[in-house]
Each structure stands twice: as structure tokens, then as C-alpha cells.
Amino acid sequence: MRHRLRSMMLAAVLSVAMLTVSGCGFTLSPQDLYSLPKLPPEYTELDEQIDQLLASGAENAPPASGNNTQPVQMWDLDGDGQEEAIVFLRDPSDEKPLKIYIFTPEDESYKQTALIEGSGTGFYSINYSDLDRDGYTELLVGWRVNTDLQALSVYSLRSGAPEELMSTYYVRYAVMDLDQDQMQELVVLRSDDENNGLADHYDWQDSGLVSRTSIRISVTMAELNQQGRVTQGALRDGEPALFITGVDDETSTSITDILALRNSELTNLALSDATGVSGEIASFQGLYPTDIDGDGTTEVPRTIALQLGGAEESADRRTDWYDYDAAGSAQRVMSTYHDTDDGWYLRLPEEWEDQITVSRSTAPDEAVVTFSILQPDGQPPKEFLKIYTFTGSSRELKVGYGNRFSLSRQTSTIYAAELLEANSAWAYGVTEDQVRDAFSLITSTDWGADN
Questions:
Q1: Which residue has the higher pLDDT, 364 or 8?
Q2: For the residues of 302-348, what is the DSSP string, one character each?
Q3: Are 299 and 333 in contact (CB under 8 A)?
Q4: Do residues 400 and 394 lie in contact, with contact meaning Cβ atoms separated by under 8 Å?
Q5: How many CB atoms lie under 10 A from the CB of residue 211?
Q6: Residue 44 has what pLDDT?
Q7: Sign (positive/negative) of CA torsion 402, 406, 410, 414?
Q8: Closest among 411, 371, 362 to 389, alpha carbons compared
Q9: Pairing mode of beta strands 405-409, 414-419
Q10: For 90-148, how does the pLDDT look when each residue is reduced to its tens digit (9 = 90+)?
């Protein structure tokens, strides 16, 4: 809050200064410029109350992870249109050192109305969500118990005083409406005593969160912690599903579980009857489940070598994307070439399957991915398409060289392509417009966020 309030004051000073020098008819003395505008009384008193807590021995303890990492956060917790102030502090001398103070606006001031206390080394995360759609926002607090352990607690403020709805140890969790009843359920991912991965499903009953189902999953919490992701998505028929991807760094493989509700029971749709674990195991190339074709359904990537017998370099791979229906049946909907190093991907025509190979080369301020047609009898492949990534001061000149055409212009990067001689003679050759339509940049929204 103090950072926010002081930023407001600085912005006001700068605004006045700009009016002064822009010839808008204002004449101010140097003393006027250094007179900070007065904050509304309620903010001043709130700042003073926080200062008193800090002076008593507490210290700022903002959450370490997630989207909400400020020491003081503003949120309308009771749905009255006015924001409460949520303050995260740590008092090392207290038996329960971690404290969340909640201040409510009242009579042009702020009054402390609630206090949540806990033990541990710090706050890991905080999320706000009206889980049961009653107009009151629940607080999902992640506590850092120690360097290896986290605990999740969910609090309701509907009665005025904090009420703990549930608490458990966890590694990741997701909040989503799995049963489509307009209320948000909770799926908590954790390890059991034997370090197996578990998914616990919490649902609403009598105004409280109760544990409904707990199932084993294929992903271990170590794999989830490394480069893993939890993605909220949808099946082919639009039914909500949770895609849990773990990554084994040693083998560079990923495994994905797909969780959905069946008769109110949490079920893993990707589970193989033969192995008892998920069948979605693939070489990991930095890709995760996403809606790759924009149809509202989440697809799972399977990256494979383009040439039979395995690719000698990581560039010589394609990715097939599969969606799932409610019965757990998968179908391929698209194939792409993903250049994660340079930040783009190309949708591949079906006719190119088993017909091409890909290589990547680099030089100062540029990278080139070359698509080639495989030839019979061991003959060398014929290059038919190049896609360039240009950076540096000469990028505009490089785009204009030869028959290159622009695909995308970014602040410091230009993507371009070139159709080579073999393309026109090939039955499955493409046009410039087809290349442009098939080309996309990889964005941060391609991968779902998790907690």
C-alpha cells in the first residue's frame, strides 16, 4: 500500500510539473512543485496503522509466487463495491509469526476487521475467488512450511470472522468448475507417504468444502515441480478437464494426466489399461497442452522424430496434437513444427507427413530453419522452404534479400520466409499466402497458468 500511495503522490507531482513546462498557463514556484498532494484521509490513516504494526516488530512478508505478490493488496472481499486492504506481515517473535491483516473501509477510514495467523517461513501465494458464488470472496492461502513443504488453507469471510474451510499439504492446486454447477471446486496435487502423486478433489456441501475423491496420478510431484504445468482446459465435447504435465529432466520426457469428473468421481482419462499409468508420454520439447487450433478444445502435444530411426538433432521433429472426448478416446487434430528457440511454429499440411526433414542453423543476429523433401534411394533431401529469424540492426536489409517475404515484424525481431526451387516442382508445394496463414508466434498465453 505504501508503495502504491507513494507512487500516486509521485505521479501527481510529475503531472503538475509537465503542465508547468508545457505552456498550459500555469506558473508554479519551486516550493509548489515540492509540495506533495494530500492523500485521502482513509489512505493516510491506513498507512499509519500499517506503520504502527511495523514499528511493533513486524515486517513485510509478501507472497513469493503467483500473480499477487504485493505486501499490501486491495480486493473487494464482501462484494459491496469497496476494496478491503489485505496486509501480509511476519512477526518473528510470535508463536504464529505469519499474519494476514484485513482492513475494511469505514467512515472515510480503514478499520481492522479480521486477522488470519499461521506458522511457517513465509507466504507462498495468495489467490482470491468467490468459490461458491455467494458474493463473498474466499482467500486461498499458500503457506511455506519449510523449504520442502507447502500447505494450502481456504478461508471464508462470510460471517465476518475468518473461517477455515479446509487445509492440506500440496505442491500445486487448481480452482475450476469441473461439474459445471456454477461453483468452483478445488483439485489439490500432492504426494502420499510413498511419494506417489495424488489428486484430491474438494466439492461444496452444506456451505463447506469437503473431500470427495482422491486418486493416484502418473505424474510425480518431483516431475511437476521441475518444468511441470497444470492447465485448465476442455474436452472435445466442451466438458471441463484438468491437464497435469510432469517432466523428467533426466530422460527429457513428459507425461500428462487428464482429469475429469465421472459420476461425481475424479477420473484419469489418459490412463492406459495395459500399464496403469497415463499413455500420454512423449519427448519433451518445451510444449504443454493448449488449444492449438482455437476451437475451444485443449490438445495434448506428442513430439516425434520426422525421420524413421530417430532424429540426430532436436530440430528434426514434428508435434502431433491430440484432443480427448469424455470417454477417453484421443484423435489427432493437427501437426506443427515448433521452433521454441526462436518463438514461432508452423502448421504442417497433412500431405507433408513422412515426406520432409527439418534442420536449423544459426549465425550472428539470425537463425534459419530449412524444410527439405526426403528423396528415395538415399539421395540427399531437396530444400524447398526456409524460415528466417532476424535480429540486429541489419534485419530490414536481410528481409529484402532475394525472394524472401515477411511473416511477422516485432519490436526487435523480423520473421521471414523463402520458397526455394524444389517447392514449385513438388506436388505438395505451398504458396507464400499458405506459409503466412500457417505461421504463428508462440505467446505466453499458449500455456495455461497454475498455482
A1: 364
A2: EEEESSTT--SSTTSEEEEEEEE-TTS-EEEEEEEEEETTTTEEEEP
A3: yes
A4: no
A5: 13
A6: 86
A7: negative
A8: 362
A9: antiparallel
A10: 999 999 999 999 999 988 889 999 999 999 999 999 999 999 999 999 999 999 999 88
Backbone φ and ψ of 14, nearest 5°: -65, -35
Angle, in degrees to the nearest 10, between helices 41-55 and 2-21: 130
Q: Give every strand in the sheet of 138-146, ordered side by side.
A: 122-129, 138-146, 149-156, 163-170
Q: Give burial (CB, 10 Å; 0-12/13-18/19+) of 424.
A: exposed
Instruction: Calculate the CA 355 to chain-centre distance.
Output: 35
Strands 208-217 and 229-234: unpaired
List 254's β-bridge partners, or say none: 247, 282
The C-alpha cell 540427399 sits at 380
Task: Give the 3-state secondary structure of residue 123.
Answer: strand
Name the phi and psi angles at 250, rounded to 5. -70, -40
Please report the pLDDT score of residue 305 as a whole number: 86
Cβ atoms of 91 and 97 within 8 Å: the answer is yes
Residue 153 one-letter amino acid: S
Q: What share of the chain is helix, strand, coil (3-state, %, to 5)?
A: 15, 45, 40
Cell (9 digits) for 30: 519551486
Query: Which pTM does this prediction carry?
Result: 0.86
Residues contacting 326, CB < 8 A, separation 6+: 235, 236, 237, 239, 260, 269
Among 179, 187, 173, 79, residue whose Cα is nearest residue 133:
79
Set of cell numbers at residue 56: 511493533
Cell 488470519 belongs to 116
Across the chain, mean pLDDT equals 89
For 10-53, write each residue's pLDDT tens digit.
344 334 344 444 444 445 455 554 455 555 777 788 999 999 99
Determine the Cα–Cα distance for residues 287 and 254; give it in Å rounded to an integer: 9
Residues in the chain: 451
Distance of CA 165 to the CA centre of its chain: 26
Instruction: Quickly tell me which residue has 504464529 as its cell.
Output: 96
Q: β-strand 208-217 against 414-419: which pairing, if any? A: unpaired
The CA distance from 276 to 327, in Å, is: 17
Joined together, the cell numbers standing for residue 60 give: 513485510
